[in-house]
Amino acid sequence: MEKTDKKLTFKHYIIIGSMLFGMFFGAGNLIFPIHLGQLAGGHWLTAGLGFLLTGTLLPLLGIIAISITRSTGIYDLAKPIGHRYASFFMILTCATLGPLFATPRTATTPFQISIATHISASQEPWYLLGYSLIFFLLAGFFSRKPTGIVDAIGKILNPAFLILLAIIFGIAFTNPMGSASSAHITSDYQNGALLNGFLQGYNTMDALAALLFGIVVVTSIRSFGQNKPSSIAKTAAKSSLLSIALEAFIYLVLIWIGATSLTHFKISADGGIAFSQIANHFMGLPGEIILAVMATLTCLTTAVGLLTSFAEALHEKFPKISYKSWDMISCIASFLIANIGLEQIIAWSTPMLMFLYPLAITLIILSIASPLFNRDPIVYRLTTIFTIIPALIDALNSVPAIISEQGFAQQILKWDQMYLPFAKYGMDWLLPALIGLLAGLIIHYVQPSIKRSKLKTE
């Protein structure tokens, strides 16, 4: 018999909301809205709304999906599609949030903010090598035997970082760099600002993080006396109002600042450089130094969390390899990949995200809607089968030119543009996914009636 739910106080909602904010807010993600603002220019608000859909709303839906299905994690959530697929999706997500992209980015982002703008291009590889070596030696040391020290530092640094952002925002509002509405709009954002903003939100990787770590939030909600899946989902939704509002405000202001910065700066290669330039413009060298130190420390705590989570998840799945071995593998791989530089990490992570995000989006929607079709595997499988091929083509379309301009790739992309709607926007998976969902639902609802009619005739 299921326990009755306890009534939560406002304090409980604040605690859960703070946990959600702490999980998804990070210095590393702040470079993307600034860069988006520079790209979108006068269409900054439209692009910003698209960014918020994938950057703030989708992660919340991921946590709601875990609570509704009572899943213990990403593997359990994807299990209706098949055990092999669930393992494949979990490993790929762990690798993306771990040593392939997210963890190396924790070193390259503060490097771009703190050092890259003050050295020549020829010096950059050597400085990055030294910086990332020290960074991952520290991250590896703290992650080999996790303690509360790093968490405690993170709890102090995140509020301090918010105060620094508030100061920059205050100066930006009272003394803006220029007009955002009249800022130059790049070609991709002339007519497709909303969709491009939506796709840029993939870079936060927060929806993937929600699927991987959302069980932590769900467990915390249960500890407050919420037991029914519907109650947990409602509590997560209510608690997130404050955290989503704050995160959305931060993102939108950064996008606006990015757009206004075009009066003084050219579009930067990445948001890290732009962030450093903007901090220097508003607060001078002292402000830039404070930003650099805080970005480094907050990203270091994030790196420790990612290394720990990767090692724990893979050790649980493959227990023959120890936690420390997985941690070392992740640390060494992250260090090596970090040295290709932030711009290249973003360039190569884009195709992976273009592949993973459609699968994550459909999995989240299916999980939330699963009570309507009793979590029938046929609905999950057909939707995923119809989604995975277009998602692969989207990934191919976004890989660097060395691959995407090859003859075989051009043939596939030409076919894609001809036959699949929204292909030019990177959303060609949408219609096939809907077809797969519809086919799955038809089979789910028709099969029982066919079985009943057979029984009557026998």
TrEMBL record:
<dbReference type="Pfam" id="PF05525">
    <property type="entry name" value="Branch_AA_trans"/>
</dbReference>
<feature type="transmembrane region" description="Helical">
    <location>
        <begin position="289"/>
        <end position="314"/>
    </location>
</feature>
<keyword id="KW-1133">Transmembrane helix</keyword>
<feature type="transmembrane region" description="Helical">
    <location>
        <begin position="126"/>
        <end position="144"/>
    </location>
</feature>
<feature type="transmembrane region" description="Helical">
    <location>
        <begin position="207"/>
        <end position="225"/>
    </location>
</feature>
<comment type="function">
    <text>Component of the transport system for branched-chain amino acids.</text>
</comment>
<keyword id="KW-1003">Cell membrane</keyword>
<dbReference type="GO" id="GO:0015818">
    <property type="term" value="P:isoleucine transport"/>
</dbReference>
<dbReference type="GO" id="GO:0005886">
    <property type="term" value="C:plasma membrane"/>
</dbReference>
<dbReference type="GO" id="GO:0005304">
    <property type="term" value="F:L-valine transmembrane transporter activity"/>
</dbReference>
<feature type="transmembrane region" description="Helical">
    <location>
        <begin position="385"/>
        <end position="409"/>
    </location>
</feature>
<feature type="transmembrane region" description="Helical">
    <location>
        <begin position="237"/>
        <end position="259"/>
    </location>
</feature>
<feature type="transmembrane region" description="Helical">
    <location>
        <begin position="429"/>
        <end position="446"/>
    </location>
</feature>
<dbReference type="GO" id="GO:0015190">
    <property type="term" value="F:L-leucine transmembrane transporter activity"/>
</dbReference>
<dbReference type="GO" id="GO:0015188">
    <property type="term" value="F:L-isoleucine transmembrane transporter activity"/>
</dbReference>
<feature type="transmembrane region" description="Helical">
    <location>
        <begin position="354"/>
        <end position="373"/>
    </location>
</feature>
<protein>
    <recommendedName>
        <fullName>Branched-chain amino acid transport system carrier protein</fullName>
    </recommendedName>
</protein>
<keyword id="KW-0472">Membrane</keyword>
<feature type="transmembrane region" description="Helical">
    <location>
        <begin position="12"/>
        <end position="32"/>
    </location>
</feature>
<feature type="transmembrane region" description="Helical">
    <location>
        <begin position="44"/>
        <end position="64"/>
    </location>
</feature>
<feature type="transmembrane region" description="Helical">
    <location>
        <begin position="156"/>
        <end position="174"/>
    </location>
</feature>
<feature type="transmembrane region" description="Helical">
    <location>
        <begin position="85"/>
        <end position="102"/>
    </location>
</feature>
<keyword id="KW-0812">Transmembrane</keyword>
<dbReference type="GO" id="GO:0015820">
    <property type="term" value="P:L-leucine transport"/>
</dbReference>
<feature type="transmembrane region" description="Helical">
    <location>
        <begin position="326"/>
        <end position="348"/>
    </location>
</feature>
<dbReference type="InterPro" id="IPR004685">
    <property type="entry name" value="Brnchd-chn_aa_trnsp_Livcs"/>
</dbReference>
<comment type="similarity">
    <text>Belongs to the branched chain amino acid transporter family.</text>
</comment>
<keyword id="KW-0813">Transport</keyword>
<keyword id="KW-0029">Amino-acid transport</keyword>
